[in-house]
Amino acid sequence: MGNQTKGYHVAVVGATGAVGQKMLETLEKKNFPIEQLTLLSSSRSAGEKINFKGETFTVEEATPESFENVQIALFSAGGSVSKKFAPEAVKRGAVVIDNTSAYRMDENVPLVVPEVNEEDIKNNKGIIANPNCSTIQMVAALKPLQDAFGLSRIIVSTYQAVSGAGTAAVEELREQSQDFLNGEELTPEILPVKNETHHYPIAFNALPQIDVFQENGYTFEEMKMINETKKIMHAPELSVAATCVRLPFFTSHAESVYVEIDQENTSVADIQRALNGAAGVVLEDDPSNQVYPTPLSAVGKSDVFVGRVRKDLDTTNGFHLWIVSDNLLKGAAWNSVQIAESLVKYNLL
Amino acid sequence: MGNQTKGYHVAVVGATGAVGQKMLETLEKKNFPIEQLTLLSSSRSAGEKINFKGETFTVEEATPESFENVQIALFSAGGSVSKKFAPEAVKRGAVVIDNTSAYRMDENVPLVVPEVNEEDIKNNKGIIANPNCSTIQMVAALKPLQDAFGLSRIIVSTYQAVSGAGTAAVEELREQSQDFLNGEELTPEILPVKNETHHYPIAFNALPQIDVFQENGYTFEEMKMINETKKIMHAPELSVAATCVRLPFFTSHAESVYVEIDQENTSVADIQRALNGAAGVVLEDDPSNQVYPTPLSAVGKSDVFVGRVRKDLDTTNGFHLWIVSDNLLKGAAWNSVQIAESLVKYNLL
């Protein structure tokens, strides 16, 4: 057990990216026990210097050998990097916490939001997947309702920040907004999806496309929310529908969520009571004082915020909620670090 | 019938406001037959000069006598102005087309979207109400589905532009966005609701409050969508739920809409066919070529644009749609002028 007090050898793959940076900030802020830190990236970013707890680290190009002696490898450098290097890390004894979509729906890979299904990590075979950002905050907020009342249906429309599309998208919103205010012509190059044919302005606009379209007319982001929610909540019969929209703000996703619960005769106060004090959830819901969460009010915070709880006016078991969380923290970095903490807690390293 | 060829005496009340300006632009663009034009406002804006068809008009302070000989009075100066002056205009023989919420739910006042319930204008007793902007575009898009398949349920989440809150809100978004980009502190003063206690930043944010909260936890905007939809569609049994969100763009509202229809075994192609070519509706829906409407793409256009038509994956009769329209045109000015055109068409002046 010496390791637990001294700390672990942690590798961060994609250390220079938006989520990688937040992972390092979170590891530092939450004081995760680290004995050795290895920062990895593609060859493009190798050589960059990064500060962690007052020490300067040089980012190295990831190779299979980079994972020798690594105990926890946090991956956030795109699906292809995870596909290439996660098996190499596992082969060398590391547990991989993967923030990409590469392994999420693999039946041998637990998909984990600790407030919802922490114990699933016990079934890991070396890789644990971190869910999609918009999924994480929704299931974290709905788990207390599933537990207390049963959950049969979810219809969600999202309001998602550009940082979910990476640092280039953040820069595009910033520059494009300034161009718009200056009355200059807009030249979109990144959003909605970098590698797609068409790009549309995000500044002072709304784009109903996140990730690529599937055969059934849904985007991959929408299908992620639908499929991941059922897997994390252990609810294959749960009805889930999603419409995902990219919006001109930098951080935090918001979600307008309609749910149907199994229990009849439930009041708004019952729902609020179930949410209030649930792990990782903060109720911010007082219409008479204009209290509700917004993307800006959630920035930099680890929790999932819920407001605007209302009873549906036409059904006996339907409710509407407004769910907001920092997409880079609970939606990515913080949830990954929480999984690492769970591995320590269950002595799985 | 001499009047019809020569034109009508039209008054615009609130001529200097955001919607008033668009009404004048629309009257000019659609070449509505005007013989005499009277521009009215509060005392604050009286004396301003406005150009119409190359002629300069001076805005006058509205008084009861302003409406002598007026045949059509287009009101868009706030509910209290309509309450005060609409009866005076009617008393003097004018037909009032009121763009405020003052009379919309009055059972003696037709609430009209010409593509949906044009004939209701025949029941007018002097006042015809123009619905709320977010309602108009939704019912215009859903009417073809109601006609073809029957409609039992609507759940809508909105993405609404700041111009719906007036010119001060537009200016606030512009200035606040620049302040944000400059790294300056934000000092919200207008949104979400000018006369409310608390104001929150709209720049790079999302505010789940449009208009004031009601006893049941819904905002007035949400209740407008719910109640007006049932009235316009002549469907008191229709289930309608709404979540209304203000977003940082200037013009056009977007809506993520879930509908349940009565007819079973309906396909996406059936829905698209019903929408395609419906009056005032344009289908922009080709995911494989990234074709869908956005707020920016709808600016300045009279039509209601529909895209992202998908079949719900869990129900046999549910569909998801994305509906976008210019909130100042079809959502306000153009719908009002359309009502005026209907009055001419039915010889009701």
UniProtKB/TrEMBL annotation, chains A, B:
<dbReference type="GO" id="GO:0050661">
    <property type="term" value="F:NADP binding"/>
</dbReference>
<feature type="binding site">
    <location>
        <position position="104"/>
    </location>
    <ligand>
        <name>phosphate</name>
    </ligand>
</feature>
<feature type="binding site">
    <location>
        <position position="327"/>
    </location>
    <ligand>
        <name>NADP(+)</name>
    </ligand>
</feature>
<dbReference type="InterPro" id="IPR005986">
    <property type="entry name" value="Asp_semialdehyde_DH_beta"/>
</dbReference>
<keyword id="KW-0521">NADP</keyword>
<dbReference type="GO" id="GO:0009089">
    <property type="term" value="P:lysine biosynthetic process via diaminopimelate"/>
</dbReference>
<dbReference type="Pfam" id="PF02774">
    <property type="entry name" value="Semialdhyde_dhC"/>
</dbReference>
<keyword id="KW-0791">Threonine biosynthesis</keyword>
<feature type="active site" description="Acyl-thioester intermediate">
    <location>
        <position position="133"/>
    </location>
</feature>
<dbReference type="InterPro" id="IPR000319">
    <property type="entry name" value="Asp-semialdehyde_DH_CS"/>
</dbReference>
<keyword id="KW-0028">Amino-acid biosynthesis</keyword>
<feature type="domain" description="Semialdehyde dehydrogenase NAD-binding">
    <location>
        <begin position="9"/>
        <end position="124"/>
    </location>
</feature>
<dbReference type="GO" id="GO:0009088">
    <property type="term" value="P:threonine biosynthetic process"/>
</dbReference>
<keyword id="KW-0220">Diaminopimelate biosynthesis</keyword>
<dbReference type="GO" id="GO:0004073">
    <property type="term" value="F:aspartate-semialdehyde dehydrogenase activity"/>
</dbReference>
<dbReference type="InterPro" id="IPR036291">
    <property type="entry name" value="NAD(P)-bd_dom_sf"/>
</dbReference>
<dbReference type="GO" id="GO:0046983">
    <property type="term" value="F:protein dimerization activity"/>
</dbReference>
<feature type="binding site">
    <location>
        <begin position="44"/>
        <end position="45"/>
    </location>
    <ligand>
        <name>NADP(+)</name>
    </ligand>
</feature>
<comment type="pathway">
    <text>Amino-acid biosynthesis; L-threonine biosynthesis; L-threonine from L-aspartate: step 2/5.</text>
</comment>
<keyword id="KW-0457">Lysine biosynthesis</keyword>
<protein>
    <recommendedName>
        <fullName>Aspartate-semialdehyde dehydrogenase</fullName>
        <ecNumber>1.2.1.11</ecNumber>
    </recommendedName>
</protein>
<dbReference type="InterPro" id="IPR012080">
    <property type="entry name" value="Asp_semialdehyde_DH"/>
</dbReference>
<feature type="binding site">
    <location>
        <position position="160"/>
    </location>
    <ligand>
        <name>substrate</name>
    </ligand>
</feature>
<dbReference type="GO" id="GO:0071266">
    <property type="term" value="P:'de novo' L-methionine biosynthetic process"/>
</dbReference>
<dbReference type="GO" id="GO:0019877">
    <property type="term" value="P:diaminopimelate biosynthetic process"/>
</dbReference>
<feature type="binding site">
    <location>
        <position position="246"/>
    </location>
    <ligand>
        <name>substrate</name>
    </ligand>
</feature>
<comment type="function">
    <text>Catalyzes the NADPH-dependent formation of L-aspartate-semialdehyde (L-ASA) by the reductive dephosphorylation of L-aspartyl-4-phosphate.</text>
</comment>
<dbReference type="Pfam" id="PF01118">
    <property type="entry name" value="Semialdhyde_dh"/>
</dbReference>
<keyword id="KW-0486">Methionine biosynthesis</keyword>
<keyword id="KW-0560">Oxidoreductase</keyword>
<comment type="subunit">
    <text>Homodimer.</text>
</comment>
<comment type="pathway">
    <text>Amino-acid biosynthesis; L-methionine biosynthesis via de novo pathway; L-homoserine from L-aspartate: step 2/3.</text>
</comment>
<dbReference type="GO" id="GO:0051287">
    <property type="term" value="F:NAD binding"/>
</dbReference>
<dbReference type="InterPro" id="IPR000534">
    <property type="entry name" value="Semialdehyde_DH_NAD-bd"/>
</dbReference>
<dbReference type="InterPro" id="IPR012280">
    <property type="entry name" value="Semialdhyde_DH_dimer_dom"/>
</dbReference>
<feature type="binding site">
    <location>
        <begin position="16"/>
        <end position="19"/>
    </location>
    <ligand>
        <name>NADP(+)</name>
    </ligand>
</feature>
<dbReference type="GO" id="GO:0009097">
    <property type="term" value="P:isoleucine biosynthetic process"/>
</dbReference>
<feature type="active site" description="Proton acceptor">
    <location>
        <position position="253"/>
    </location>
</feature>
<comment type="similarity">
    <text>Belongs to the aspartate-semialdehyde dehydrogenase family.</text>
</comment>
<feature type="binding site">
    <location>
        <begin position="163"/>
        <end position="164"/>
    </location>
    <ligand>
        <name>NADP(+)</name>
    </ligand>
</feature>
